[in-house]
Amino acid sequence: MERGFDIKALGEIAIRCGDVGRQVAFYRDVLGLEVLSGSSDDDGIVFFRIGPGYGGHTAVLALFARDAGRAEIHPHTSDAPRTGAGSSLHHLALTVDHEAQENAMRWFSHHGIDYRVEVFDWIGWRGVFCLDPEGNTVELVAFDPSLLAADGQEKEDSDGKGVSQP
């Protein structure tokens, strides 16, 4: 039997939160995502627009209070969700324009948000990484063809050092 389907895009990523209000403030006010639906005060579920998605399905980020949602579909507990190294979520990457990364770094600095930058020359990406209020790693990633390594060799900066870990 053939599989009969191909994945076209990521439709939604949902994160269970200990403090939905703090998380909403970060994703809305710091990262600038648009709230589509919900409120941390109402049912503890908030949906944000990430992008246009595929086939009419808007790509979304959903934040769920630890005990929100339908338990028969998504089991939950009153315990605080695990984040950081103890979480099964490694990181969340959101795509931005390469030029916008510089603005993001200035914005993060202005708001006292620590970040780090990494270059992935094997694919031509640069990532700006920070933590959300609950310790989840968030990456603002951008493609820049000038970052691509030639023939699989690590690209070097002007000092002759590799740039995969600036």
TrEMBL record:
PROSITE patterns: VOC. Pfam families: Glyoxalase. InterPro entries: Glyas_Bleomycin-R_OHBP_Dase, Glyas_Fos-R_dOase_dom, GlyoxalaseI/FosfomycinResist, VOC_core. Residues 9-143 form the VOC domain. This is VOC family protein. It comes from Palleronia caenipelagi.
